[in-house]
Automatic annotation (TrEMBL):
Highest taxon of the lineage: Bacteria
GO terms for cellular component: cytosol
Entry keyword annotation includes Magnesium: no
The Ribosomal RNA adenine methylase transferase N-terminal domain, residue ranges: 29-202
This protein's name: Ribosomal RNA small subunit methyltransferase A
UniProt similarity note: Belongs to the class I-like SAM-binding methyltransferase superfamily. rRNA adenine N(6)-methyltransferase family. RsmA subfamily.
A Pfam family hit: RrnaAD
Organism the protein comes from: Sphingomonas turrisvirgatae
HAMAP family with a match to the protein in the record: 16SrRNA_methyltr_A
UniProt enzyme class: transferase
Membrane recorded as keyword: no
Positions with a binding annotation for S-adenosyl-L-methionine: N22, L24, G49, E70, D96, N115
Native organism taxonomy: Bacteria, Pseudomonadati, Pseudomonadota, Alphaproteobacteria, Sphingomonadales
SMART domains with a match to the protein in the record: rADc
Length: 268
């Protein structure tokens, strides 16, 4: 395969800021990211935003069958060349990942791997985490700005802990697989990044997702207030909190994921 920088130059792929384009060229780093989901030989992978195809190459080299959705038409010819080098292994869809019916594209559960465009990364991730359980995907390996990655894996009692942490952790395990320095990207973004690895677990029984969503919205919507006040927006939540042993004078950021689950179960 030609070096990625040559591919970029030959296809005139100057980075477009509006599309969140910060490209990765370091083959070793890309191989490390492609190893995060585990052995990909023969596995389906869904990639959002392949761009010139750096991560795509690494995934293909690892033996994955990749379906990639790319919004920037300029990247399609470069990706077609990559497809020729890995016959039958790469399917490229030109489109917006927010609109594509991704589950319909796969017969077996794909791993999702992406150096996400920062402007739609959180929306896509929240969508994947809100899917019916067991989800249509096998794991998520996602590059985020470091601050977003920290919010996903945050523990109670920290400033980073909030709705995203509860959403990511109540029926999945979430960890930071590796930090990535801003200088690894072209052009370099202003902030550091990190790859997050999320693996779905069993859904706790008896809990309605919508109820958990309402509780976390109310509790973290007024995170500095006591639960007694912040949970007023959810009928019966105050009494339910006391019934499951959560002191109503506590604040949302001290309530563990398991405690939110208990509370949601009591209200579901
Ligand atoms: N995967 C490449 C890499 O690691 O070098 C590029 C990553 S770059 C951070 C994000 C990519 O997502 C860009 O190629 C951009 O055009 C694409 N993109 C942005 N918004 C998108 C959307 N809504 N749907 C699909 N792709 C999108």
């Amino acid at each position: 395969m030609p070096p990625l920088r040559d591919v970029i130059n030959r296809h005139g792929l100057s980075a477009n800021k509006a599309l969140g384009q910060n490209f990765l060229f370091d083959a070793q780093l890309l191989d490390r990211i492609a190893r995060v989901p585990g052995d990909l030989a023969g596995q389906d992978v869904f990639e959002v935003g392949p761009g010139p195809g750096g991560l795509t190459r690494a995934l293909l080299k690892a033996g994955a069958k990749v379906t990639a959705v790319e919004r920037d038409r300029r990247c399609i010819p470069a990706l077609a060349e990559l497809g020729e080098a890995f016959p039958g292994m790469l399917r490229v869809i030109e489109g917006d990942a927010l609109e594509v019916d991704a589950p319909a594209l796969f017969a077996q559960r794909p791993h999702i791997a992406s150096n996400l465009p920062y402007n739609v990364g959180t929306a896509l991730t929240v969508g994947w985490l809100s899917a019916d359980w067991a989800p249509w995907w096998a794991s998520l390996t996602l590059m985020f700005q470091k601050e977003v990655a920290e919010r996903i894996v945050a523990a109670p009692g920290t400033d980073a802990y909030g709705r995203l942490a509860v959403l990511a952790q109540w029926r999945s395990t979430a960890r930071i697989a590796m930090p990535v320095h801003r200088s690894a990207f072209t052009p370099p973004p202003k902030v550091m990044s990190a790859v997050v690895h999320i693996v779905p677990a069993d859904e706790p029984p008896g809990v309605k997702f919508k109820v958990l969503e309402k509780l976390t919205a109310a509790a973290f919507g007024q995170r500095r207030k006591m639960l007694r006040q912040s949970l007023k927006a959810v009928p019966r939540a105050g009494e339910a909190a006391e019934a499951v042993g959560i002191d109503p004078t506590r604040r949302a950021e001290t309530v563990s994921v398991d405690e939110f689950v208990e509370l949601a179960r009591a209200l579901s």
